[in-house]
Design a protein that fits this description.
Elements lengths: L3 E6 L1 H19 L5 E6 L3 H16 L4 E5 L29 E9 L3 H13 L4 E9 L11 E5 L7 E6 L5 E8 L1
Parallel strand pairs: 2-3, 2-4, 4-5, 5-6
Antiparallel strand pairs: 1-8, 7-8
Helix pairs in contact: 1-2
């Protein structure tokens, strides 16, 4: 039986979600002072770039942007065959900063836990907030996003796929049913 692919968000829907998340971040943090964006490789880092652009358009200033690779912090590292370590690129201090941690899809919460462990190893942020494009539920850890593009309850055997163009901009989100 072939997998069924259902479009959940198109480019316009993603752009609306990113715009809303950017406004919510700015409202909650009262601007960009001491604010940094950290995208989780891969997917979250692409979304973080989109949020940086949108926040810069709104505020007229560029917010700092970094990326973090969580491969070595994962709790399933021994059972993964697709282990490829990426690069963390954070060229500023995290100490006393308000960190917006960004990922494309939130599922069990384990990637977010790994990212928080990695961030704490790099400094002591004032706080860490979580921005997610799609929250699909099924948490295994007590992780709750602060900013959500779309809540999409799924079955455990379903998948969410975020598609990116050649410039790494998200252009579609699909639900895959097998």
């Amino acid at each position: 039986m072939a997998a069924e692919k259902i479009e959940i968000l198109d480019l316009e829907g993603i752009n609306r979600a990113v715009t809303r998340i950017a406004h919510e971040i700015l409202e909650k943090n009262k601007g960009i002072e001491d604010l940094v964006l950290i995208g989780i490789r891969t997917g979250g880092d692409y979304l973080a770039t989109q949020l940086q652009k949108k926040i810069s358009e709104i505020e007229g200033q560029v917010v700092l942007l970094g990326t973090i690779d969580v491969t070595m912090y994962r709790d399933d590292i021994g059972s993964r065959s697709d282990l490829s370590v990426g690069q963390t690129d954070i060229r500023f201090t995290l100490s006393d900063r308000r960190v917006i941690l960004i990922d494309d899809v939130l599922f069990t919460g384990r990637t977010i836990r790994a990212a928080m462990d990695a961030l704490i190893d790099l400094g002591r942020p004032q706080n860490i907030q979580l921005a997610i494009l799609v929250d699909r539920g099924h948490r295994e850890l007590p992780i709750r996003p602060d900013y959500i593009g779309r809540n999409l309850p799924t079955a455990r055997n379903e998948k969410i796929e975020v598609e990116f163009d050649q410039q790494h901009a998200p252009y579609a989100v699909h639900l895959i049913r097998s």
